[in-house]
Amino acid sequence: AQDAVIEDYMASVHAIAAASDDYDATMESLLCGELAERPDYWSWLWPSSLVISQKLATAPEFVRGQSVVELGSGLGACSVCAALMGAASVVATDHEPRALAYTMLNAKENGVADVVTPLLLDWSSPPSALEPHDV
After folding, report:
1. CB-CB contact of 83 with 103 (8 Å)
2. Which of 5, 27, 66, 93 has its CA 20 to 30 A from that of 14?
């Protein structure tokens, strides 16, 4: 599953490099830049995620049987925790496709991929199709 995330990323880098005048130099620049850069914002496990997950673990009745939406799921810690605590359904949203890929990888690793649904969401323009959720 993690291979699929890497393959997706490499395909996007390849497409950028293929459209450039110098494929090798562009690939090297993009990949070296990726290695040297600070990790993406979504890839950090934020303290707020830990606090929310701890709260859900000690009070699972808050989400048990409920429909849950997480705005800005990042790695999906809260979404996975809500699913593990018995949420009926969880919609994990983020504006970054790679974040959602990792959210689903984490959901699969924890046996709750059937409960968690990823949704690419631009917070400045939320879809009208996003149904109301309990939590």
Report:
1. no
2. 93
Who contacts 61 (Cβ-Cβ below 8 Å, separation ≥6)? Answer: none
- Which residue matches tokens 């606090």? 51
Superfamily of domain 43-120: Vaccinia Virus protein VP39 (3.40.50.150)
Q: How far apart are CA 62 and CA 55, in angstroms?
A: 9
What are the boundaries of each domain within the chain?
2-37, 43-120
β strands within 1-135, DSSP E: 67-71, 89-94, 116-120
Residue 16 CA: distances (Å) to CA of 21, 28, 45, 82, 95: 10, 12, 29, 37, 20
**Rounded to an integer, what distance in angstroms lies between the CA atom of residue 70 and that of residue 51?**
14
Residue 1 pLDDT > 60: no
Angstrom distance (rounded) from CA 131 to CA 2: 30
Better pLDDT: 31 or 22: 22
